[in-house]
Amino acid sequence: MKRIGVLTSGGDAPGMNAAVRAVTRKAIYDGMEVYGINYGYAGLVAGDIRRLEIADVGDKIQRGGTFLYSARYPEFATLEGQLKGIEQLKKFGIEGLVVIGGDGSYHGALALTKHGFPAVGVPGTIDNDIPGTDFTIGFDTAINTVLESVDRIRDTATSHVRTFIIEVMGRNAGDIALWAGVAGGADDIIIPEHNFDMSKVAKKIQEGRDRGKKHCLIILAEGVMSGEKFSKELDTYGDFHTRVSVLGHVVRGGSPTARDRVLASKFGWTAVELLQQGKGGLCIGIKDNEIVASDIVKTLEGGKHQPDLSLYRLNNEISF
Which residues does the record give as Mg(2+) binding sites (predicted)? Predict the structure, then answer.
């Protein structure tokens, strides 16, 4: 294989640029040409493709977002969209493709695989909701961003003896809320993967107040409900001086942590290695601190990613 392409798709995640850098420089080091595809699958179909040189990925490893840009392109789920994309790949002589993104991006790579085009998926999403890997690019940065906000909110919550509902991103997954909640000493963590009883949440808050506790922090995953809705339901059980803070897209941005930069570099390097070996239809991950490659069809059809619910139990037992 002499010419490969790389694209980022779906929601941006800190560390995507580090992954593109690793793909580009590893390929060039091994005598290959690399083509960057702007705006994900939308750019692929449109032919928004350019050759990447060493200098194009310089000064990128520390930057958040993606310099290749990203866009939602549901049309790629259709046969017509997929064939248009393959037509562009052939036009540019691209023999293999590295797809960096989340669940939707993986399904695009799966479609290319089924058409016989070698594609390798690299998990890039702050949500950490991709099967086949313990961690995704951007997750570590996201939870550290949330953690910084939680620490700041605790100060004002204590000053005014308030209960804060902190709503965090994660789509339908609770990993961000779970990890940031444990690390931030949250009084309660509400995630889609575990049922909760509002009356018990209220009781826990009241018991804390009865002991003289000056604040209460509840980390809420957006996949459960909005912070405002949660606050209104909680208020039916008493006056807890509740305030809501929605962290929103700030969690997606910022310079990636060292862990995300290293993970992204490992993933990008491995993706090129696999394509060089003529291997496609794979997705890369990390399992028990080892880089692994799995069949993308079996991975996507084998079930959804599940968070470490032992953390949920841990927090319940030490957060009173």
Answer: 103
- pLDDT digit of tens for each residue in the chain (320 aa)? 899 999 999 999 999 999 999 999 999 999 999 999 999 999 999 999 999 999 999 999 999 999 999 988 989 999 999 999 999 999 999 999 999 998 889 999 989 988 989 999 999 999 999 999 999 999 999 999 999 999 999 999 999 999 999 999 999 999 999 999 999 999 999 999 999 999 999 999 999 999 999 999 999 999 999 999 999 999 999 999 999 999 999 999 999 999 999 999 999 999 999 999 989 899 999 999 999 999 998 888 887 888 999 999 999 999 87
Is 23 annotated as contributing to ligand binding? yes
CATH topology of domain 3-138+256-301: Rossmann fold (3.40.50)
pTM of the model: 0.95
| CATH code matching the domain that covers 141-253, chosen among 1.10.357.160, 3.30.70.60, 3.40.50.720, 3.40.50.460 | 3.40.50.460
Active-site amino acid positions: 127
As annotated, the residues of the chain forming the CATH 3.40.50.450 domain(s) are: 3-138+256-301
Which of 45, 118, 126 shows the shortest CA–CA distance to 82? 45
Q: Is 160 annotated as a binding residue?
A: no
Ligand-binding site membership of 63 (annotated): no
